Amino acid sequence: MEKKKITIALAGNPNVGKTTLFNAITGARQHVGNWPGVTVEKKTGKRTYKDTEIEVVDLPGTYSLTAYSLDEVVARDYVVEEIPDVVVQIVDATNLERNLYLTTQLMELGSKVVIALNMWDLAESRGDKIDTRKMEDFLEIPVVKTVANRAEGIDALLEEVVREVDKGEHHEHEVSYGDDIEKKIIELEGIVGKDSALSGKYPVRWLSVKLLDGDENILEKIEGSSVATQVNSVLSTIKKDDYEAAMAEKRYETINTVLPQICVKCVNEVTFSDMIDRAVTNKYLGIPIFLAMMWAAFEVTFTVATPLMEFVDMFFGWLAGVVAQSITNPVLGSLLGDGIIAGVGSVMIFLPNILLLFLMISLLEDSGYMARAAFVMDKLMYKIGLNGGSFIPLLMGFGCNVPAIMATRTIEDEKERLVTILVNPFISCGARLPVYLMLAGAFFGRNAGTVIFGIYILGIIVAILSAKLIRGTVVKGKPSPFIMELPPYRLPTLKASAIHMWEKGSIYLKKAGTIILAGVVFVWLLSAIPAPGVDAAFASEEILGTEDSLIGVLGHIIEPLVAPLGFDWKVAVALVFGFIAKEIVIGSMGVLYGTGEDEDALAEILTAGAMTPLTALGLMVFTLLYVPCIACVGVVKKETGSWKWTLFMMVYGTALAWIAAFLIYRIGTAIGWGL
Amino acid sequence: MANTNKMIFAMVAGILYVVFGILKMLEGFGIETGLAESLLIPGDFFGGFCFVVIGAVFLYAVKELSAGVHMGVSYVYVGILMSLVFMAVYLLVMGADLLMFYAVKSEDYEGWRIIDSMRPGIYLGLLSLIGYFYWKDRFTTEMTKV
Amino acid sequence: MPHVLPLTMMPEGKEGKVVSINAGQGLKRRLVEMGFCEGSLVTVHRSERGALVVVVNGIKYALGKGLATKIMVSDC
Ligand SMILES: Nc1nc2c(ncn2[C@@H]2O[C@H](COP(=O)(O)OP(=O)(O)O)[C@@H](O)[C@H]2O)c(=O)[nH]1
Ligand SMILES: [Mg+2]
Asked: What does the pLDDT average to over B14-27?
């Protein structure tokens, strides 16, 4: 028998458990987080239930079908334009009133809706009594209780979905807006109904309601239609602002008349979340508490990783030994030993740091503290021309700038979003960490931790000052209004955070196995080819990574560019290849200095004269600030949609990096420090 | 009255954390306090700062509770949570040291004893642990587990 | 006699009733959708820092000062 295929969309307010439910249905492992705006793109997955093949689409959170920010537009367009067979609205059972607002809009649109009454466990433990029978009666929509994170109620939900699709007859539900507004609606219905292209695609009443609602998207659609002038003449007779607010309030009124009948004792008392908030948002203590939490995360990332790094180191040492013993072909041996193991090994050793860093960020996100950090930082962000909403994407940059830049989609104001994107690369990502760890470890011994912390702080300062500068000159404007939901705190589970950590960590692993591997093999290849005029065999001992190899020639060509910073040609080459991925700065130094996978050997060579603490510091700062990696440049282009801004970011960062490293080197030399 | 208990608890914990934090910061600057050795306080400027913050949270509770603000208990809970977080951090560091000694057998760890990894963060945290279990209801019923 | 005042002027811990929202159309609609309608009760949890923490319909929001000045409430 042929399987039936249907598409369902998961819609709902932010943070109600859409992604969790999506994962429970499809068995996928999308990232969930306890702050608004985690899902910024729609994601699809498949599930076969009985003999129906269901395509499931996870949409970003939206408060209504009138969209404001980019991620909301994604959700709304999908529901309105693609018309899924069933829209499953996930409703937070602890928050019926606001959640039902979206329901009223879905009803008006005429979508086939099934409600998943999620977070049922929380509502129950709070003592709320929700009568789902009555709810179904009032809304004429099937309601299924679910607890998404325990995968409860999934089958019952799918059962209802399948039944709803099979149900032939379907009626649009209406909110009645009162005589005045209804009159206008009817008038508009009459006009819009005449355009068959429009009325064939969307319900006529819905179009009319949306027009009165001032929905820009719909207004645009009308502009291009045959009834544009007539519609505009009706709209010009009303005071828009009044209508919009009045209609939203009517919807709430509708909800509020049914609410008391379906929910007995939906209480709001002082919760534990309120108590925590009282302390962490305290006028004086808010920022210190935030800093203390950051420091705790930092401490775990660095100290706890040490033994784990030793294990990785042992593994690669063992691997190098095996290769040295069993491979007799010198070229192959060199490729594996001097190229791949040296390059990839020197990057992989920092995997424990990276994983722990991601784990810390996940814990912060999952607990709900992240949104509070945005609140605490709003004042500071305001001073640099942004608002608290820009803070979370910046904070996420400590993990990786690519998802951080994607997370800026939650920022409504275009200009603010642009500035947040442009300065994001200055927030030091996990990939740059290996460079600091290696250099600071080699040159600053006991003070390595402080130096690295300082580099991080420098990144933040540069980001802040740059934002202020850009906001005051090229992207002028006032900070936009800031409003963000503060979700209740939840105790993060190790399991959820570990899964989240692994998702991001495995990207790092994949990167090591692909881009970084390719990068270091390329560096090895260049350093194994003899320079023109040099009489030596390919990959022979005496030319590998020296000036007699092709890479030496290339290095010497670009050396003058960085010579004023005190860098030699090997560093120059390493920096060029660091554009592929920042870890390669260290990976290719491993190849170029011929130290293999052994971190300590590289450290020894560097401290023995190849570098001074001063140039090491300069190199760290340069790595922090100069052009971000290819992936990051790509996402900046994609998100800003402009090569002009992308180039601006690349040039600006590199110029800053050069100036900073130059100053460090010159001033340091002048005062005779670190020679 | 329950709040008197909490107030006394916050007072003690607050003073301890502030004092230890200041000692840590002083040691971090290289100023010998003489107490460091016996109390196992390492010199650590930022770590010391964090202790002062925790202490300040507790003392803020005292300030509000003594002014009769019932919601002042919030600061007691948050102080307890934060000190437990830091206790966990230092326990993890201790675990890392254990691994370095037994599994890695690093040269730097010759002659290491478990007491070398004992930090104020751990033994002061015990106090908060007691507080946590004493007022456990509040933590478990209202901090909904996910 | 209840006074009408901007939300920013409400003392912490006090509850008020939204009287009007003096914002442009888009912004006003957004606020209404988040639950700030005329007549809804707002409790101010925090207002001493840059931004406010307010609760409306049992949902907690961080709200910038600029936005909060546009929401007029009457203290009751
Ligand atoms: N207690 C409880 N927590 C849930 C439930 N469903 C989701 N969560 C949690 O709610 C948070 C937000 O979930 P997420 O799926 O990211 O929400 P989204 O923004 O709607 O996609 C996560 O921490 C989930 O673990 C539920 O039924 N019960
Ligand atoms: Mg999501």
From this structure: 92
Question: Partners for B (CB, 8 Å, 3+ pairs)?
Answer: A
Q: Is A299–B106 a contact, with Cβ atoms under 8 angstroms apart?
A: no
Domain boundaries, chain A: 4-167, 179-269, 286-478+505-670
- To the nearest whole percent, how much of chain A has pLDDT over 70? 95
What's the confidence (pLDDT) of residue B145?
32
Please give the Cα distance from B3 to A81 (Å, whole number).
58
- For residue A485, give the nearest of C24, C28, C59 by CB distance: C59
How many residue pairs from chains A and C have C-beta atoms closer than 8 A? 124
3-state secondary structure of A341: helix
Q: Quick one: which atom of ligand 1 is closest to the CA of A492?
A: 23
CATH code: domain of residue C14: 2.30.30.90
Q: DSSP letter string over A359-397?
A: HHHHHHHHHTHHHHHHHHHHHHHHHTT--GGGHHHHHHT
- The per-residue pLDDT for range A247-272, each reduced to its tens digit, is 877 887 788 778 878 876 654 456 78
Q: Where are the alpha helices (DSSP H) in A224-335?
A: 228-235, 240-262, 272-280, 286-303, 305-326, 330-334
Spell out the residues 6+ positions from residue A330 whose beta carbon is closer than 8 angstroms to its own: A539, A540
Ligand nearest to C-alpha A23: 1
pLDDT tens by residue, B52-69: 999 999 999 999 888 877
Contact (CB, 8 A) for A372 and A365: no
Question: Count of CB atoms within 10 A of residue A476's CB?
Answer: 10
Model pLDDT for residues B93-144, shown as the tens digit of each residue: 999 999 988 888 877 788 888 888 888 899 999 999 998 888 877 665 554 4
Complex ipTM > 0.90 = yes
Interface probe with C: pick from A99, A122, A482, most Cβ of C within 10 Å: A482
Where in the sequence is the domain holding C56, given as residue range(s)?
Answer: 4-75
| Contact across the interface for B106 and A496, Cβ inside 8 Å | no
CB of A552 closer than 6 angstroms to any ligand 1 atom: no
> Tell me, what's the pLDDT at B1?
47
Say if residues A386 and A465 touch (Cβ distance below 8 Å): no
- Is pLDDT of B42 > 90? no
Alpha helices in A50-178 (DSSP H): 70-77, 96-109, 120-126, 132-139, 154-166
Please tell me the CATH superfamily of domain A4-167, with its number: P-loop containing nucleotide triphosphate hydrolases (3.40.50.300)
pLDDT at residue A240, rounded to an integer: 72
Is the Cβ atom of A625 under 6 angstroms away from ligand 1? no
Spans in chain A with pLDDT lower than 70: 1-2, 30-40, 67-68, 168-173, 241, 264-270, 596-598, 674-675
**Number of folded domains in chain C?**
1
| Structural domain A179-269, CATH architecture | Orthogonal Bundle (1.10)
Ligand 1 pocket, A490 CB below 6 A? yes
Please give the span between the terminal C-alpha atoms of chain A, in angstroms, as a whole number: 80
